[in-house]
Specification:
The chain is 67% helix and 0% strand. It is an all-alpha fold. Helix 1 runs antiparallel to helix 2 (52-100). The protein is elongated, with a radius of gyration of 27 Å.
């Protein structure tokens, strides 16, 4: 069976890692928005016409909500990154299999 030279391997566009970078303006807007929201909530709780125990409870509840939101965002991000890594490994295996496959070889 004739085996000619293999064609050069083509590098798929998906092999280049895409680094998703936020702009400085987006980062600044997110930080400012968070600061304004926390300040407004703190002022609202402080100026609330209620007992000190009620205001304290609301303050602790807000802090718990914020930490839970950060944890949830991190878990979602980590799960997405793991999915991308698994997808890239599967894609590399498929490309290797296709590169080694000779369609003219007899079975």
């Amino acid at each position: 069976m004739w085996r000619g030279p293999r064609p050069p391997m083509l590098v798929a566009m998906s092999d280049t890692p895409v680094k998703q970078q936020n702009t400085a303006a987006f980062y600044g807007q997110a930080v400012a928005s968070f600061a304004v929201a926390m300040a407004a909530t703190a002022i609202g709780i402080f100026r609330l016409d209620a007992n000190a125990w009620v205001r304290s409870f609301l303050a602790i509840a807000v802090l718990y909500l914020v930490t839970s939101a950060f944890t949830l965002a991190k878990v979602i991000r980590d799960r997405q990154e793991v999915g991308q890594i698994v997808s890239r490994v599967d894609q590399a295996r498929l490309e290797k299999l296709l590169a080694e496959h000779d369609p003219f070889e007899k079975l």
